[in-house]
Design brief:
Order of helices and strands: HHHHH
Shape: elongated
Distance between the termini: 45 Å
Number of strands: 0
CATH topology: Ferritin
CATH class: Mainly Alpha
Largest sheet: none
Radius of gyration: 16 Å
Helix content: over 70%
Length: 144
C-alpha cells in the first residue's frame, strides 16, 4: 500500500477516534436526556469506523493511534461546556452536522487515490455512506 494512502487512512482513523470521544463526552453530560440516542448511535458508528480502519493499517505495518488528536480534547471540552448550560438538545445539531460533513469529506481524498484495493474501497465507501445517512437524519430532526 502506498504511503499516501496509509497517511489518509491514519487521518480517517484519527477523525473517527476524535468524533467518538466527543460523542462519549456529550452522552456523559446529557445524562440520558436530550440527544442521548443520537450520541449513542454516533459513538457506535465512529467506533465501528475506527475498528474497520485498524485492519488495513495494521496490515501496512502501522499501529493505529487509539488516543486521537488534540481535537478530541477540544470536542470533549465543547460538549462538556454545552452540557453545563443544558445545551445538549437539538441546538447542538448545526455543529454536529458541520462536524460530520467534514468527517464525510475526509473520505474524498482517500477515495480518489490511485490503486486503492477493492476491499478497502468498499470499506471507505460504506463508511462515508453511513456518515451521510446520519447527517440526513440530523437534518430531519433539525427541521422538525
Amino acid at each position: 500500500m502506498q504511503q499516501d494512502l496509509i497517511d489518509e487512512l491514519k487521518k480517517l482513523h484519527c477523525q473517527a477516534v476524535d468524533a467518538r470521544k466527543g460523542y462519549e463526552e456529550a452522552l456523559d453530560d446529557a445524562e440520558g436526556r436530550g440527544m442521548s440516542p443520537l450520541f449513542k448511535r454516533m459513538i457506535a458508528l465512529h467506533a465501528a469506523n475506527a475498528a474497520e480502519l485498524c485492519s488495513p493499517l495494521q496490515a501496512a505495518g502501522e499501529a493505529p493511534d487509539q488516543d486521537g488528536s488534540f481535537m478530541s480534547h477540544i470536542h470533549r471540552t465543547i460538549m462538556s461546556v454545552r452540557g453545563l448550560f443544558g445545551g445538549l438538545d437539538e441546538s447542538v445539531l448545526p455543529g454536529l452536522i458541520d462536524g460530520e460533513e467534514r468527517n464525510a469529506s475526509g473520505y474524498d481524498d482517500a477515495l480518489k487515490m490511485p490503486d486503492v484495493p477493492a476491499d478497502l474501497l468498499g470499506v471507505l465507501t460504506t463508511q462515508r455512506r453511513r456518515i451521510e445517512t446520519e447527517i440526513a437524519g440530523m437534518k430531519t430532526v433539525k427541521t422538525a
